[in-house]
């Protein structure tokens, strides 16, 4: 039986058929897409990155115990405003664990942090601009509705920082950042829907990220 960090598992995470099936063949669009809104990075970008920064946040290094939480498969594409895929962009995500604690020394309740949750991950987009993460469904913490922080880097430069929200969550209406988006909320909101056929009650969420001008275009 393959261990958590065998080549087979890493290959699956980097080229998951699950993720690939979600992507339509990209092409130029007649009209420009709406750029993904920029949102605050927040105070809890990890101040001490884990040695393991891959795209599976449920398994940390060589540990066998997974993180606590509802397994969520997050996938999407990074596109320019004409719908062309952005290749070799580094997508980063970071979020609280199942206890509402970030991978940060100043995050509240740090002593209760889930030591099995990676808290941060990276993925390099392929030729279709696709990315994929396996994580847990985000939970609320004091002052904020559940969300996942997302950043895109290209050629060593930060191109976009934003946040992804759960469609229909009751705390969205009370979240100042979410409310400030107005009619752009739909651009950073996704349904965390049951994954068909999963016996573990896993979820899937789709989030396409639309960039403005990239360094290559500039």
UniProtKB/TrEMBL annotation:
GO terms for molecular function: ferric iron binding; protocatechuate 3,4-dioxygenase activity. Residues 74-102 form the Intradiol ring-cleavage dioxygenases domain. SUPFAM superfamilies: Aromatic compound dioxygenase. Keywords: Dioxygenase, Oxidoreductase. This is Protocatechuate 3,4-dioxygenase. The lineage of its organism: Bacteria, Pseudomonadati, Planctomycetota, Planctomycetia, Pirellulales. Belongs to the intradiol ring-cleavage dioxygenase family. It comes from Aeoliella straminimaris. InterPro entries: 3_4-PCD, Intradiol_dOase_C, Intradiol_dOase_core, Intradiol_RC_Dioxygenase, TAT_signal. It holds the Pfam family Dioxygenase_C.
């Amino acid at each position: 039986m393959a261990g958590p960090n065998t080549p087979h598992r890493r290959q699956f995470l980097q080229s998951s058929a699950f993720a690939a099936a979600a992507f339509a063949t990209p092409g130029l669009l007649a009209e420009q897409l709406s750029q993904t809104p920029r949102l605050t990075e927040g105070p809890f970008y990890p101040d001490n990155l884990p040695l393991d920064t891959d795209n599976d946040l449920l398994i940390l290094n060589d540990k066998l115990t997974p993180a606590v939480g509802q397994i969520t498969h997050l996938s999407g594409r990074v596109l320019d405003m004409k719908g062309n895929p952005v290749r070799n962009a580094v997508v980063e995500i970071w979020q609280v664990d199942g206890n509402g604690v970030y991978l940060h020394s100043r995050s509240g309740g740090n002593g209760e942090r889930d030591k099995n949750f990676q808290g941060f991950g990276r993925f390099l987009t392929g030729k279709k601009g696709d990315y994929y993460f396996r994580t847990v469904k985000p939970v609320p913490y004091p002052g904020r509705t559940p969300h996942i922080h997302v950043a895109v880097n290209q050629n060593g430069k930060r191109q976009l920082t934003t946040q992804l929200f759960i469609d229909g969550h009751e705390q969205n209406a009370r979240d100042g950042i979410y409310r400030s988006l107005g009619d752009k909320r739909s651009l950073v909101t996704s349904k965390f829907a049951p994954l068909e056929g999963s016996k573990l009650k896993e979820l899937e969420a789709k989030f396409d990220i639309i960039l403005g001008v990239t360094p290559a275009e500039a």
